[in-house]
Amino acid sequence: MKAAVFEGKDNIVVQEVPDPVLQDGELLLEIEACCICGADLRTYRHGHAKITPPRILGHEFCGTVVETRAADGPSVGDRVVMYIVIPCGQCKYCRAGRANLCVSRATMSYDFDGAFATHMKVPAKAVAGGHLFRVEADISSREMAISEPLGCAINAHHNRLNIGLKDVVAVIGAGPIGVMHALLARLQGAQKVFILDTSESRLEMAKAFDLDERIIVSSEGGHIERVKELTDGFGADVVIVACGSPHAQIDSLEIAAKAGRVEFFGGLPKSSPTAQLNTNHIHYKEITVSGSFSEKMSDFQAAQALVQSGRFPADKIVNKELPLEVITDGFHLMEEGKALKACINPQL
Ligand SMILES: [Zn+2]
Ligand SMILES: [Zn+2]
User: Fold this and answer.
1) What's the pLDDT band for 91 if we cut at 50, 70, 90?
2) Ligand 1 center to residue 148 CA distance, Å?
3) Which of 178, 217, 218, 224 keeps 20 to 30 A from 133, CA to CA?
4) In a domain, 154, yes or no
5) Cis peptide before 54 (omega within 30 of 0)
6) What total of structural domains would you count in the chain?
7) Containing domain of residue 281, as a range?
8) What's the CA-to-centroid distance between 149 and ligand 1, angstroms?
């Protein structure tokens, strides 16, 4: 089969690799769409402590079952998306229903080869664990592929941010994840939704969505004042930091209203993971700060159902489709803010 193999920093090579051979319980997908994630970009540029090359990346995918050696699970011909976290099932967090926090989790594209390839093998444990969700609507594979990142966003919202009719929401970061957060806020009934970014081109792309205000963040400032201006001086009730910038984390506490909720969605680079936060904002304004990482199966299920319903503008989020051969072009387009989310179609 053909695959894009990550061989080390700045080095992804599209090549012929041996076809996967199925063991008992495993299943083979023909990949129709696999979106490029920010995590793929970071791994491509900087490597990843948990990824040992050579490894096929890509974990936001949709494909069709072409072979199965599993007694249960989907059949040949079924189109599916996958919950990619394979937890131990035994640890404290797994027992609490928080498999995303499992102490010995395995993940597609980290511990197993991912979906930047014509085909991908699904581990037996995932098939048996019900990780494959059938697509039961006439919706493109490229749209369904965003179920995975959307589930991660839902993990931050459900039972945590509790956005509703009384909330003004500001999202810092207008990449695909920021846009998904903003759209989820809108769907949940937020009064106003703002999106902020340092990149003019990303804010330009955000025009495709029903948001109240796009605010440029520049070194000269003005963006914090703009949020205050738009909220009668109060600030935003919910601030979601959807980028890996310490400045954004610092700003989020300034932008938040009293009794606000602030979510640190994006992690900071492991080499410089600290931000100089003014924690007095948390104290005096009674702000609740939350973090979130990955997703539980229930988050993925909710995302899959939402995309499948057609009520989420997945087609506008995935605004570029490319064949596998030019996968690195897709990486560059996203880095340069020229594509919101690029999707690889290995069948092209
Ligand atoms: Zn991802
Ligand atoms: Zn566990």
Assistant:
1) very high
2) 7
3) 178
4) no
5) yes
6) 2
7) 160-291
8) 5
